[in-house]
Specification:
Layout lengths: L2 E4 L2 E4 L1 E5 L6 E5 L2 E7 L4 H27 L12 E4 L2 E10 L5 E4 L3 E5 L7 H32 L5 E5 L6 E3 L4 E5 L7 H13 L8 H10 L4 H15 L5
Parallel strand pairs: 3-5, 7-9, 10-12
Antiparallel strand pairs: 1-2, 4-5, 4-7, 6-7, 8-9, 11-12
Helix pairs in contact: 2-3, 3-5
Length: about 240
């Protein structure tokens, strides 16, 4: 494994080349440094890039070592934390990069690439950006579900959007405006689907009478299990770490 010599400190790093990357990149996690180079880069190109980034690499590696050494006092949003998502607790990886903007990707877990300028407020920044990512994802899910059921059953609300509801998981106003609690991103997708369909059913039947429940059963057979899941987990969803 190649190493970067900075004073007396020798920092090993993994060199990876990419034919699709548009720029060189360095990512740093506890105990690991990765240098992403372009396919056309020669040894001098990589050495020059590392020379320009040497002070940032040194400072960031030291910071990661400090965090690792004092894990009892670290923020909540660090590598190894668990993020509730669609009914499961998914692993979080936080990396330092030399980029200007924060980036979040999801693939069997969350990866947050922190920009070089994020320092003392990194925990708050990760939490804020994760919250935004999750809100965007649940908004997309709700729109997709509403469009699907609207096409199949002719249930088209005047509007449907996600929000932070103080009470309940959804509501359907008298003019057909539907609100869905964004915290349902922490529940299984089938549970989110149930809440969306429940509110769409109110476009046909306003009250929770026998006709409403019978109609809901025709829209989404077996929805009782999702309703029961919500009853059992409502306090945990409401007290989510991102609430």
């Amino acid at each position: 494994m190649p190493t970067l010599q900075i004073g007396r400190k020798e920092i090993p790093y993994e060199l990876r080349r990419s034919a699709t990357a548009s720029e060189r990149r360095i990512t740093i996690t506890p105990g690991h440094v990765e240098v992403l180079a372009l396919t056309r880069d020669n040894d001098d190109d990589i050495a020059g890039f590392l020379e320009r980034k040497r002070q940032w690499v040194f400072n960031t590696v030291r910071e990661m070592e400090r965090i690792t050494a004092s894990r009892h006092a670290v923020p909540r949003f660090i590598t190894g934390s668990k993020i509730p998502y669609r009914g499961r607790n998914m692993p979080l990886t936080v990396r330092r990069t030399d980029a200007e903007r924060i980036a979040i990707t999801y693939r069997n877990g969350f990866t947050v690439d922190l920009p070089h300028w994020a320092r003392d407020d990194a925990d708050h920044l990760v939490a804020s950006e994760l919250k935004l990512w999750l809100k965007q994802r649940v908004r997309r899910d709700v729109q997709e579900l509403a469009a699907d059921y609207g096409k199949r059953f002719g249930l088209v609300p005047r509007s449907i959007r996600t929000t932070d509801l103080a009470h309940g998981w959804g509501s359907c106003g008298p003019e057909g405006n539907i609100l869905i609690n964004w915290h349902l991103i922490f529940a299984p997708r089938k549970v989110l689907e149930y809440v969306v369909v429940h509110e769409l059913a109110h476009l046909r039947y306003r009250s929770h009478g026998q006709e409403f429940w019978a109609y809901l059963a025709t829209l989404m057979p077996g929805s009782e299990s999702s309703r029961s899941w919500l009853d059992r987990h409502q306090s945990a969803l409401s007290a989510s770490f991102l609430a």
